[in-house]
DNA sequence: CGTCTATTTGAATGTACTCAAAAGCGGTGG
DNA sequence: CCACCGCTTTTGAGTACATTCAAATAGACG
């Protein structure tokens, strides 16, 4: 049984995107299970097929890829009330490129892929929920491309702080450097420079 | 009345993502209208609210933004059988940041936003079509972020040629430079270098 | 307390940019 | 059909932002 507080968190998230009759909402919540993780725990490995999505309640989780020089790139950071998964692998049923790792001990709700797909037929309004989620994820990813092209590293970092307040003090900074697209060394020098000029 | 060939093109596109009864497919096609455009014609201006999506049949259309230094960034290039719109503006009903411009005289099918939203209630399977489109758009946008972070400009250009075969000979190269994230000057030098080394 | 990882620092390097100017190209009108 | 005009592409020189590599320092965790 899922803690009522966590139930409410997920229901509130859904409610922000779509209106649901109580029956459907109950059914949706009945499909997820709760899971506690430790720091550094891996939820999905590169080359595995993603079978689940995770709704983050507490903690922080990253999804990263390796490029052909074996360098890591942090593609997603998820904290309170965000979904995280390897969408490519989830929709294609092929081995993915993402490793999903907990950066802190975390609490998540787990949605099995198969149940998610079943619900689309049973309750079409839930398909709308995920459509709208996808639309928003798509738009914010486009914004990230635009920012990478048009903003300086300092500006991207300021954006990051607005989007993830306080996260810089919770997780290794090299992951933040990777997320905004710079090396850890440059990130370190940049932060120092920003402090001096403020 | 839409040319049967164009009708088929749209139906085939839908068919790649979702199975539809003939009735629903007919209804869907009845919602779009055909439009011929000239080169340099603007379909949507920055700061206007997007009311339509465009399915490109012939020609080439770009969507670009301006950053705070008034530099253009080509966010989308659409050719045969791609949808293009300002998704942010379309879903939020707020003025957008994209200008959508035809780079060649083009043939498009126009889907009014309002009719698209209506159809979600009438035929839930169409909501699935757009959900799946969004999932794919999202995944390929993530891939673009990854490529921008991990590939050299040359590799990004080779990817571009694979994704848009022959387009380099059809449109001003400065747009391609912008799409892959380099200046026109650098793009020119890079192409020269690649020719020499091959 | 010791070990492992993360961060900082510095020097040298490189990739891509800016600015300016010349050359090329294409469309339009005379 | 040619000549012109405007836009695009090319070229070159100088520059900047960010990287790489190496090493020292700091911090976290068992």
Written overview of the protein:
The structure is a homodimer of 198-residue chains. Chain A has eight helices and eight strands. The first copy, chain A, is of the alpha+beta class. Chain A has one domain: Sandwich (Jelly Rolls), CATH 2.60.120. A four-stranded antiparallel sheet of chain A has the order 1-8-3-6. In chain A, strands 2-7-4-5 form a four-stranded antiparallel sheet. In chain A, a hairpin with a 5-residue loop joins strand 4 and strand 5. In chain A, helix 4 packs across helix 5 and helix 7 crosses helix 8. The first copy, chain A, is globular. The structure holds a DNA duplex (30 and 30 nucleotides).
Keywords:
homodimer, 198 residues, alpha+beta, Jelly Rolls, four-stranded antiparallel beta sheet, 21% strand, globular, DNA-binding
Topology:
The structure is a homodimer of 198-residue chains.
Chain A: H1 4-15, H2 22-31, E1 33-37, E2 42-44, E3 52-58, E4 61-66, E5 72-78, E6 82-84, H3 87-92, E7 99-102, E8 106-112, H4 113-122, H5 124-150, H6 153-163, H7 173-180, H8 184-196
Antiparallel strand pairs in A: 1-8, 2-7, 3-6, 3-8, 4-5, 4-7
Helix pairs in contact in A: 4-5, 7-8
The structure holds a DNA duplex (30 and 30 nucleotides).
Counting structural domains of chain A, the number is 1
Rg calculated over all Cα atoms of chain A = 18 Å
**Beta-strand content estimate of chain A:** 15-25%
Mean pLDDT over the full residue set of chain A: 96
Structure summarized in a few sentences:
Chain A is α+β, with helices and mostly antiparallel strands and about 200 residues long. Chain A has one domain: Sandwich (Jelly Rolls), CATH 2.60.120.10.
